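Suppose a colleague, Dr. K., hands you the sequence of a protein chain of 210 amino acids and asks what its three-dimensional shape might be. Before reaching for any lab equipment, you can write down a predicted structure in token form. Begin with the sequence itself:
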Amino acid sequence: MPRKTSMMKGNALWCKVFEPDTKFDTNGIYSVTVLIPEAEAAEVCEYLDTLVDDKFAEEIKAKPKLKNGLSTKTPYEPEYDQNGDATGNIEFKLKLKAKVVTRTGDTYEQKPIVVDAKRKPLDKDTAIGNGSVIKVAYEPIPYMMASTKTVGVSLRMKGVQVIDLVEYGGGSSMFDDEDGFVSEAVAKDDAKDTPFDDEATDNGEAQGDF
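The predicted structure, expressed as tokens, is then:
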């Protein structure tokens, strides 16, 4: 059954979408943190909370004895400044494994689609700095971690659309067209076969393969 694809829009923090980070995982992890003002994030938080609650209920139904032992974990948290004060933003962390090893031992590689405001694929040398306004397509994946007896939802990144670029260092459509940053030089072949041909909505109603 295809997983549902959802959207969120906010400010980028520590965006690693062209080259995976191998510091803590040799297979590589693409990642981005999205900061959204608390009021604007309420709908997304409610949607994700529902997924966590549904997964919790599913696990309890299958194994009633777990009821008093399971805890839940939300895939977001408040952002705090250097003084430990809340900034008023909610922080969402999204990831995608660059190399996946299946249970049968097979492997495959994957990467997020990265496009500009007009849905043109971005050159890998584009430095997406902190504060860039981005829209992220993601798949919420409910889980139950047996080792910690924790139920939660991970946010699996599928693609990033850069609406307003703040370049790091100073210097077909899942997404709708937006007024904003447009890339200059993109090879024509890079624009083919992207997952951005079908519109997705904030409530996760659109579906797409991962």
